[in-house]
Amino acid sequence: MQCNLAVIKGDGIGPEVVTEAMKVLDTVGEKFGHTFDYEQILMGGCSIDATGVPLTDEAVAVAKSKDAVLLGSIGGNTSTSPWYKLPPNLRPEAGLLKIRKELGLFANLRPANLYDELKEACPLKAEIAERGFDMMMMRELTGGLYFGERHTEEVDGVMTAVDTLTYNENEIRRIAIKAFDIAMKRRKKVTSVDKANVLDSSRLWRKVVEEVAKDYPEVELEHMLVDNCAMQLVKDPAQFDVVLTENMFGDILSDEASMISGSIGMLSSASLNETKFGMYEPSGGSAPDIAGQNKANPIATILSAAMMLRYTFDLDKEADAVENAVKTVLKDGYRTIDIHSEGTQLVSCSEMGDLICERI
Ligand code: NAD
């Protein structure tokens, strides 16, 4: 298969971790007979330095012409970098917001799982960590409270702020379909999280999710109230497969799920639109404190590339090979500095990439 990618290395550790992910994709290409073609575009601080803006329209056009985008991370030290003295619409993060909007990325996927070898990094009780977990948090990204109308006004002499939470049935249906499609590639269970005992938007959410579920008889659907879900994530995370929820609930719950998985350097993510197109990136930031030192953990980016193989290109066997190679490297005792502990062998960012390639 010919896979055409736009690559955004970005700032900080971005170039280091993306280089390792590209190495892994090339190894997959050699082993399984695929070709990965990369066109690099600028976004974030490096784009500001080169062009004066965090993302040019030309760069967006390149991204739109490809099958997927592989992204490192963008931004610098928010206290000391000159990029943060610019107006908000010219700062590095504005590039990220622009590309998400331009590409119509409405579904955010963040896997949260616990590797046997990293169980000691899990902040949950040992008996819960022992059972392990492997879930996919799916958050609606372009609707709800963060995009509704808002204003602040004085009402009868009292300052009053209003935010509105709006969803229409089409917005709910398209992400529900994505969630059920993804559940079909996993353990075939969807937990839809809402606040249907209080909110109208949640009652519509529940109704539309139930309609979509009828097209997926093999997938088990359960509904859970958001407050209960927050509790269940720390009490019994093993029960979850795909967790589907709206924007603000997903913002909070996906961070909770990340936290129980251990290191930020392990957490991959994807944002998808209605087609097979996706943007794949690590959940962490540009880590300016360790940038340029070949110390960063490239696994989050490498696992993001595996998600790309699975969800954009339907290359499940190839994605399995990458994920299994990561597991084997951890089992063999190799660790980057963020997950290093006594009795394990410390390796650099590029050494970790090489070790994973060898095992593919
Ligand atoms: P951060 O995630 O960059 O770093 C937090 C801590 O985690 C740091 O100690 C860092 O060294 C460590 N860390 C992160 N990724 C790592 C990895 N792969 N390997 C080893 N250690 C890793 O968060 P921050 O310091 O709050 O933000 C730094 C910059 O990143 C800011 O400009 C922020 O706006 C930006 N940011 C970008 C994205 C993105 O590109 N999507 C996301 C979050 C933050």
From TrEMBL:
Its cofactor is Mn(2+); Mg(2+). Binds 1 Mg(2+) or Mn(2+) ion per subunit. Residues 4-356 form the Isopropylmalate dehydrogenase-like domain. One of its GO terms (molecular function) is 3-isopropylmalate dehydrogenase activity. Substrate binds at residues 100, 110, 139, 227. NAD(+) binds at residues 285-297. Its EC number is 1.1.1.85. It catalyses: (2R,3S)-3-isopropylmalate + NAD(+) = 4-methyl-2-oxopentanoate + CO2 + NADH. Catalyzes the oxidation of 3-carboxy-2-hydroxy-4-methylpentanoate (3-isopropylmalate) to 3-carboxy-4-methyl-2-oxopentanoate. The product decarboxylates to 4-methyl-2 oxopentanoate. This is 3-isopropylmalate dehydrogenase. It comes from Coprococcus eutactus. The gene is leuB.
